[in-house]
From TrEMBL:
Keyword rRNA processing assigned: no
Name of the gene encoding the protein in the UniProt record: rhaR_1
Biological process, per Gene Ontology: regulation of DNA-templated transcription
Pfam families: AraC_binding
Official protein name in the record: Transcriptional activator RhaR
Domain AraC-type arabinose-binding/dimerisation: 51-182
GO molecular function annotation: DNA binding
Organism this protein belongs to: Escherichia coli
Keyword entries, A-Z: Cytoplasm, DNA-binding
Residues that span the membrane, as ranges: none
């Protein structure tokens, strides 16, 4: 597991400021706008392709990009997720596919709990159609925002738990096992994800969205 609490993220930000040798508050604001999270701060080695970053909770966080990609699943609470200048009111069941070049931030958070499954596309070795399975896998394009119902969330949580355990191991084939679990998770999400407007109005998932989403905003 990669436990990325707010202190860890603050250290990344402070180091980013120091490396840029800032001399004014204006420069600090500029760096904050250009904040980029790096692989070295989140992956145990340059061989690791996948890891899990917990946000218990996710606090307000400035706009940033990464040099890795991530899947974001919201387990509890609500808030505002701004992705590439588009705001999304988020709550339990929201799923995002974030490309490295995407810029995003979190604001107006209320007991927001989520998990980031972070990955480096160039390190994946499993012979899977990653590009077909992950929207925006090779570029910042495609549909980034989806929803998961209760069944999909329960199954995803189980696989993520296994992935979290495996990615923290320092034993032979841990990286390979983690990648296999990541592939399973990606296909599971493909099976269960949906958009609210893609389901019949009487669908139980759609009806649940109508109840939950206003409360999440």
């Amino acid at each position: 597991m990669v436990f990325c609490n707010n202190a860890n993220l603050l250290n990344v930000f402070v180091r980013h400021i120091a490396n840029n040798q800032l001399r004014s508050l204006a420069e600090v604001a500029t760096v904050a706008h250009q904040l980029k999270l790096l692989k070295d701060d989140f992956f145990a080695s340059d061989q690791q392709a996948v890891a899990v970053a917990d946000r218990y909770p996710q606090d307000v966080f400035a706009e940033h990009t990464h040099d890795f990609c991530e899947l974001v699943i919201v387990w509890r609470g609500n808030g505002l997720h701004v992705l590439n200048d588009r705001p999304y009111r988020i709550t339990r069941g929201d799923l995002f596919y974030i490309h490295a070049d995407d810029k995003h931030s979190y604001a107006s958070v209320n007991d927001l709990v989520l998990q980031n499954i972070i990955y480096c596309p160039e390190r994946l070795k499993l012979n899977l159609d990653w590009q077909g399975a992950i929207p925006g896998f090779s570029a910042s394009a495609g549909q980034p925002h989806w929803r998961l119902g209760s069944v999909g969330m329960a199954q995803a949580r189980q696989v993520i738990g296994q992935l979290e355990h495996e990615s923290s191991q320092h034993v032979p084939f841990a990286n390979e096992m983690a990648e296999l679990l990541f592939g399973q998770l990606v296909m599971l999400l493909n099976r269960h994800r949906y958009t609210s407007d893609s389901l019949p109005p009487t669908s139980s998932e759609t009806l649940l969205d109508k109840l939950i989403t206003p409360a999440g905003g």
